[in-house]
Amino acid sequence: MTAPVARILDGRALAGRIETLLREEVETFAGMFGRKPRLVVVLVGDMAASASYVKSKAAAAARVGMDAAVVPVAATATTTELVALVRAIARDEHGHADGILVQLPLPAHVDTVAVLDAVPPDRDVDGFHPENAGLLSQGRPRFIPCTAAGVQRMLIDAAIPTAGKHVVIVGRSDIVGKPLALLLAQRPPLGCPSDGTGGCDATVTICHSRSGDIGHFTRQADIVVAAVGKPRLITADMVRKGATVIDVGINRVDGKLVGDVDYNAVSEVAGWITPVPGGVGPMTVAMLMANTLLAAELRLGKR
After folding, report:
1. Smallest Cα–Cα separation from 284: which of 1, 15, 7, 89?
2. Residue 302: active-site member
3. Which of 74, 95, 106, 203 has its C-alpha lying 20 to 30 A from 268's C-alpha?
4. 8 A C-beta contact, residue 81 and residue 45
5. What domains appear along the chain, each with residue ranges and CATH number?
6. For residues 303 and 301, what is the distance between their CA atoms, to the nearest angstrom?
7. What is the 3-state secondary structure (H, E, C) of the chain?
8. Is 103 a catalytic residue?
9. What span, in angstroms and rounded, lies between the C-alpha atoms of 109 and 118?
10. 8 A C-beta contact, residue 51 and residue 70
11. How many other CB atoms are found less than 10 A from the CB of residue 114?
């Protein structure tokens, strides 16, 4: 077997460094305002995966010195009941709530859009509210969806060039594909590195279920982002030698977590690759913590 050539984009290590910086900023915030930033999470039903994700978010909040509360709700809750709950949380009836997060997915009978829209845009630390999506589309983001922000941060940290590069994103969700395309295609902000490693100025193609031969597009890419939730969809023959491969997928196969990328095979041709687990996942949580601190600062007028 050929030895893997790809370098590992270690999301767990980068998230740890970000949390260290956040912990210092949270201490400063607490000293200034006499309280910690606080995240409130709405958890509907008893899905094991959702409960696990919420637990990891609460643990991250504790590591950076924030407060976090989980509001459990029965799986039978209606859309009206959930909207009313979110609005009550926004009125601080469940303790002060700088950031509000509704853990997805919601049960099939619930209107997810209505519930997410009930989160005030200035507390929307997931970045899903249409106001925040609109600000991102105009290049003046407030809260960026956490996974998209995490992927961009990984590229910047590794100094992987994006300016003038072709990025192919497989997946068009509002959570990852669309916001990431906007981020990577945006004009560079002031202070952006002149070597093109600022996580922007890319040429972006979005592939989806109607794109036909996805490999036709991914083989042209300098950077491939897989975000569709299909185990090992991206195979070695779909990746150009030396390309960067970002795996956003989290799938459980035979009791193990695997991504949307055939990791072992693709590692033999890619230049950079993210593992699953330990890649994008920890970065998503770290960006959530950053958004929560930002929400608290905005709320109390620090920014």
Report:
1. 15
2. no
3. 203
4. no
5. 34-122 (3.40.50.10860), 145-280 (3.40.50.720)
6. 5
7. CCCCCCEECCHHHHHHHHHHHHHHHHHHHHHHHCCCCEEEEEEECCCHHHHHHHHHHHHHHHHHCCEEEEEEECCCCCHHHHHHHHHHHHCCECECCCEEEECCCCCCCCCHHHHHHCCCCCCECCCCCHHHHHHHHCCCCCCCCHHHHHHHHHHHHCCCCCCCCEEEEECCCCCCHHHHHHHHHCCCCCCCCCCCCCCCCCEEEEECCCCCCHHHHHCCCCEEEECCCCCCCECHHHCCCCCEEEECCCEEECCEEECCECHHHHCCCCCEECCCCCCHHHHHHHHHHHHHHHHHHHHCCCC
8. yes
9. 17
10. no
11. 13
pLDDT at residue number 195: 86
- Write down the catalytic residue from 10, 36, 57, 262: 57
Residue with tokens 């620090």: 302
Q: Which of 36, 103, 157, 222 is catalytic?
A: 103
Q: Are 249 and 228 in contact (CB under 8 A)?
A: yes
The length of the chain, given as a count of residues: 303
For tokens 């303790």, the residue is: 95
Residue among 126, 222, 247, 260 flagged as catalytic = 126
pLDDT digits (tens, 9 = 90+) for 251-268: 999 989 999 999 999 999
Residues of the chain with pLDDT under 50: 1
pTM score of the predicted model: 0.95
Structure tokens at 120: 């005030």
